[in-house]
Predict the 3D structure of the following.
Amino acid sequence: MEEKAKIKFMNTLGRKIEIFVPIDESKIKMYTCGPTVYSEAHIGNMRAYIFSDIVRRVLEYGKYKVKQVMNITDVGHLTSDADEGEDKLQKAAIEQKTTAWDISKRYTAQFLDDTSKLNIQPVHVLCKATDHIPEQISLIKKLEQKGFTYLTSDGVYYDTSKFPRYGDLAKLDVEGLQAGKRIKIREKRNKTDFALWKFSKPGEKRDMEWISPWGKGFPGWHIECSAMSMKYLGKTFDIHTGGIDHIPIHHTNEIAQSEGATGSGKFVNYWLHHDFLISKKEKISKSTGGLLTLTELEQKGFMPIAYRYFVLTAHYRKPLDFSLENLENAQNSYDRLKNISNEIRDDGKTNISYLKKFKRAINNDLNTPKALAVIWGLLRDEKAKGKYQTIKEMDRVLGLDILKKEEMKIPKKVQRMVEEREKARKNKDWKKADNVRDQILDSGFIIEDILDGQRLKKR
Ligand code: AMP
Ligand code: ZN
């Protein structure tokens, strides 16, 4: 068997940098909390998936095989984390005069489109909550048999006081939380209790509801991740990723559900969480009420991949401040990186010394800013050999298409002008050739004369 890389991660469980030791060396099992598909994801959400993509690429570059599972939340995620409020998809369906099914379909497609533009590798299993209702019901039944649940007038709840390790991941002060009276608990026994199954309200018309042993309704948000991750990855798996916002509630509840139901110890060995994309300046998007969407970035003339570059300039455990100015700087650096790299001649060699530095950076808790600095160091090092092959290899991890030649889209009008100029040159009509060159320039292209003809470049 090939020797695997030694990779270190910050494990939220214990808050320590740890050497990654897989359960089964031949296949790493990894789960990523996916999107709630009620609207177009904003670029903050996309940081989550660029992050999980980097985790996976680092493992794969380190010679591990990875099975990655991601959920699509298409039911049960309510507008309030306290198990109250409306179902986000149903709410969007009413607002947009359509069904929750249609909303789910539309925004799942949009999400996959965005991830592909960002060079995020497709996951091996993409699973929807609504396709796994029997699995969720069966998990709730198991919890019921083990005495973890109770009924209220609006659903089946998890009694967190029955799970002694509750809150360990988040280092929650559960007793402090119980003592304070800030959170309304209504019929809940404890403040931290959460819904496993919610009943459809009498008279409420839901697009998504199912019959269960407890009554007609729909699953709570957290149960889908326990049910689907364990279905595809087993009772204990290697890595679980998500944003830091998930630590105190969603992931804490996933642990309580999964470990409560299986009773067989640890649910996940390594919990990896990324920090947020923030915007210190004013909120700049109308559609998400805060951060922009990838579509909006494109409309402003940015390349999606430049956003990926921007995300990689910060360590994943640090907040990243977004502004159009910061993104513009990243886009400029990315363009320069690409332009310089594309001038390099391939000498067929690899630069071991720079590659070593690069590996050290990525294997040390995914230090992408350092990895980018190594690439820049290599490009600036006039004496260094093997630049082309080394950058090609580094880009397997970064996924920035550094050496990919962009196909230039030439409008028909410009194409005709190029032909006209070629004819004028042949006829030695230099005045006309110069005129056409100026027209081409006005259309956003530069035409250069080379030995055997002309060469067109973007302005
Ligand atoms: P949601 O679609 O709301 O379920 O969230 C999807 C993912 O986006 C979760 O992993 C969140 O942690 C993450 N997320 C939400 N807002 C941000 C943000 N501003 N920056 C980074 N990640 C975020
Ligand atoms: Zn989840």
Notes: The chain has a mean pLDDT of 92. Residues 33, 71, 225, 250 surround zinc ion (ligand 2) (CB under 6 Å).
